[in-house]
Specification:
Layout: E1 22-23, H1 32-45, H2 53-66, E2 70-74, H3 77-87, E3 93-97, H4 102-109, E4 114-118, H5 129-132, E5 140-146, H6 155-165, E6 168-172, E7 180-181, E8 184-185, E9 193-196, E10 209-213, H7 216-225, H8 247-258, H9 260-278, E11 284-286, E12 300-304, H10 306-309, H11 313-322, E13 325-326, H12 341-344, H13 353-358, E14 362-365, H14 373-388, H15 390-401
Parallel strand pairs: 1-13, 3-4, 3-5, 5-6, 6-9
Antiparallel strand pairs: 2-10, 7-8, 9-10, 11-12, 12-14
Helix pairs in contact: 1-8, 2-8, 3-4, 9-14
């Protein structure tokens, strides 16, 4: 379905292209029958939580996938980040990107640790090692890297910096399941890495996360921490909380993990379809994946250069949303512009020129198992139509917003 005239656009009263919203991160549901078999099994056994067999199996499968000694399932990735931070004994200040989901910063601030926002590389969108040195102070105890879009940070450079200054290094790997860095699977770097299995991730466990580490003592400390400090029956050894994953979440995670090749194959097919159709669009740059590495192709990301394209990312977002195509502005407006950081560190943006630029340009497009080639054609055709008629669209929007209607 395409638009024949500007008047047909939904923002001007036309029929939306989609009746049901087309989401960027609509949950992937794979092999419902297998999942329900597992649910019936866990109900029959009446083992619903407290480190049951499905959680244990999920941990083993993940450890095999990423090549680490320990994988620890948690109720969500934010809890995973908080547990790693506490187990590492971080304090004072930790250097973090602002171009990330807010949980990366919140997991520090909620424990009384100041996230010192470092700028990202304009090309990779990951924390820039060359800018980290200027962020280090006597209070700095750690660095957190975020593998944005599943494209690995410069792990080697970050490791060298951490070693040079005696800092702890860990990674937010929420986007990076089944991705690699220089041929090695993400999950084995730094002190620990934290994966997300939130409903919107390409492999989900409804809600959930996984901490991966090769550090035996760290793994033991985290296991105590997420189970109230218990080791065995009625034996509490340390302060802790309840961060355990439930059996039903692990059953969902296992079922999706078993279908990992199918999901990645579909993601890659969508990515290549978008890449072919977006080729030649002025001012629209598709963020590419390094074909030398393993990728999950989970996100379809474009940068909108307003000067070249002639239209802003925000206006495009507004027009797409009216058509029920719910593109997303990642990671707008940047952690440093959200509370409490906007108040606590009001000048942070002065040191984040690349971040400030990216949050105005980046847009993610729908993908996943629920998207097919016809949807991609519709999305790209709409983009082409908007770019072709952008001057008239702006005039009509101006008249719409004018009190006189003229």
């Amino acid at each position: 379905m395409t638009k024949k005239s500007v008047d047909d656009l939904a923002i001007f009263g036309g029929e939306p292209l989609y009746v049901e919203p087309l989401h960027v991160g609509r949950p992937n549901i794979v092999d419902r029958e297998k999942f329900l078999q597992r649910v019936n099994d866990l109900l029959d056994r009446r083992t619903l939580t407290n480190y049951g067999p499905y959680v244990q199996e999920f941990e083993r499968r993940m450890a095999e996938l990423v090549g680490v000694r320990h994988c620890i399932a948690v109720c969500n990735a934010t809890m995973g980040l908080e547990a790693v931070i506490r187990a590492l004994g971080l304090s004072g200040e930790v250097i973090a990107p602002s171009f990330t989901f807010i949980a990366t910063a919140h997991s520090l601030q909620i424990q009384g640790i100041k996230p010192v926002f470092c700028d990202v590389d304009a090309s990779t969108h990951n924390i820039d090692p060359d800018r980290i040195r200027e962020c280090i102070s006597p209070r700095t105890t750690g660095i957190v890297g975020v593998h944005v879009w599943g494209r690995a940070c410069d792990v080697r450079a970050l490791s060298d910096l951490a070693n040079e200054y005696g800092l702890k290094l860990y990674f937010d790997a929420a986007h990076a399941l089944a991705c690699s860095y220089q041929g090695d699977m993400i999950g084995s770097f730094g002190e620990a890495e934290v994966f997300s299995f939130h409903a919107t991730k390409f492999v989900n466990s409804f809600e959930g996360g996984m901490i991966a580490t090769n550090r035996d003592e760290l793994a033991e400390a985290i296991r105590l921490m997420i189970n109230f400090g218990f080791r065995g029956y009625d034996n509490v050894l340390s302060l802790g909380t309840n961060g355990k994953m439930s059996e039903v979440s692990a059953a969902m995670g296992l079922t999706n993990l078993e279908n990992l090749p199918v999901i990645i194959s579909k993601n890659r097919e969508n990515y290549e379809n978008y890449r072919e159709r977006l080729n030649g669009f002025s001012g629209i740059r598709l963020i590419a994946y390094d074909e030398r590495e393993q990728n999950n192709y989970q996100y379809i990301v474009v940068e909108i250069d307003e000067e070249m394209a002639g239209i802003s990312r925000d206006l495009l977002t507004q027009l797409f949303h009216a058509e029920n195509i719910l593109v997303r502005r990642y990671f707008y407006p940047g952690c440093h512009q959200m509370q409490p950081y906007r108040t606590l560190y009001p000048n942070a943006g002065l040191h984040l020129p690349n971040t400030e630029r990216l949050v105005q340009r980046v847009m993610t497009l729908p993908t996943g198992l629920s998207i097919d080639s016809a949807d991609i054609l519709t999305i790209v055709d709409l983009l082409d139509f908007i770019l072709l008629h952008q001057n008239r669209i702006r005039k009509m929007l101006f008249r719409q917003s004018s009190p006189s209607g003229k």
